[in-house]
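Session log. Operator J.P. requested a structure for one protein chain; no other inputs attached. Running the standard single-chain path with C-alpha cell output.
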Amino acid sequence: MVSLVSMAALASSAGANDNGAGAEAKLQDRSGNPVGKLTINPHENGTVAVQVRVHDLPPGFHGFHVHAVGDCTPPFTSAGGHFDKDKHTHGSHSGDLPVLQVNENGTGKATIHTDRFSIADLFDSDGSAIIIHANPDNYANIPTRYAAAPDAATLATGDAGDRIACGVIERTAKQ
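Structure written below.
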C-alpha cells in the first residue's frame, strides 16, 4: 500500500495567502456514490500536504490530478484539463500528482507534499476539482524507441483514460 509519497517540484508559491485554511473534496463515482475524501492543508516550508483516502475503486494504479474547473458533472469532463499555473506540458502541470495505488480490496491512501500550488491557487474564478482516472498516468513519458514523439493526447493527459471519480475542492476553516 502506498502511504507516503513526497514530491518536490517547481518554484514554490505554496502557502501564499492560505492563512492557515485548508481545503477538501468529497470524491464520488459517476453514479454519485461516495468513494473517498481528499484534504489539502498548509505544511512546512511553503508546501501543502495533499491526503487522499479512497474505497470501492478498481484495483491498480490510477492517474490522479487537480483539474482546472470545480465542476463534477458526470462523466467529469466538466472539470476541464489539468490545473496549471504556468502553461507547462503534462508531467509538469501544477496539478499533476503521483499515480494513486488502489489495493485489491478497492481501498487506497496517499499523502503527497508539493510546492506546485498553494491552496489559494485552487480558488480562482471557476474553482478546481480532483480527478481519479481509470488508468495509470505515463506523464507523457514515451521513450523515443517507441515513437518519435508523444502525440497530442499523451502530452495533454498522460493517457490516464476515463475519469472514474471526482470531487470539487472546497475551502475548510482554519485548523
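Operator note: The domain at 5-134+162-174 is CATH 2.60.40.200 (Immunoglobulin-like).
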